[in-house]
Amino acid sequence: MPLSPNDSVIRFFHANQYNALAAEGTRLENSAVTSREFVNPSENNRGPSIFVLGRYTADEIAQIAGKPFHGRIVLPVSTLLDAPLNLAVVHTPGECVKWPSLVDYHYSITGIDSAGKRNVLITIFNKYIERPPCSPTSSS
Amino acid sequence: MSYNASSAKSGTWLAVLPGAAVAVIPLVTPPAEYGILFNRTPRPAFVGRAETNMPILDTIDRLSRETAQPDWDDEQGLAISRADWDRALELYRKTCGLGLPEPFPSPCGDGSVHLSWAVGPTKFVIEWRGSQIFWSFFRLGQNPLGGTAGSFDDAVAMLRMHLNA
After folding, report:
1. B130, B84: one domain
2. Among A25, B27, B96, B152, which has the highest number of CB atoms less than 10 A from its own CB?
3. pTM (two decimals)
4. A139 C-beta neighbours (distance < 10 Å), count
5. B interface mutation test: which of A70, A119, A127, A129 has the most B CBs within 10 A?
6. Strand, coil or helix: what is A111?
7. How many domains does chain B have?
8. Is the residue at B64 inside a domain?
């Protein structure tokens, strides 16, 4: 499924990776992108996972993927492609076997090959946090 | 078995209030694993609130239990060893007197532990797994900086330099 720069993508992050007491723009922690996603990319993990929005909404993807309380980053593909990091966004259905209905919408960000680039990606992600993690008892 | 703050609150300790200060007296000998948090030395008989009310220690203990098994994050995350979490305490102690806010401990799916200090528009992160240590410095509106460190002392020196601590 070809991706347009105008498409929006979503990435989820865990509450342990979000410091609500930090200044806005620095709250997402480095731990939100693991080195397994950039130091040793493999067939099963080519880079940070994202889902393209469109067929499914953010809420629907969160429900299907079992991440209803995770924080969410939503950003346009063009933001990733325009970043001075030489990134690409590639379709990686093989990394989405747990959720067959999302296979067509699972992509990976490739080109993150160092902790320094990871830090830049974290900085970008921090600008596009759509929703912080929430607890099962809070309304979203 | 790991340290459990709730056991300290449920009768193991007796709180007394001499004026405005808060002190805690151990009624029984603390369990051996309690020493993990305090260099494995016996706990003093009187401890001020600042020393007993340390949420970061509880957080680290909770995270060490939550990340002890693989796939703890449902993303095939690698298990994080208790040794690496204990090093978080070691690093925390090294920075206690620097006048910084409490660090934020965070586990990573690659098996590393992260400790970060947020100060105004800046944030300093030290992450490690085994002997590998990496530091990062973020300032709003600027490109992040980062590099490897040979030891926690080296990483703390970078932290002090960037946060003026």
Report:
1. yes
2. B152
3. 0.80
4. 4
5. A119
6. coil
7. 2
8. no
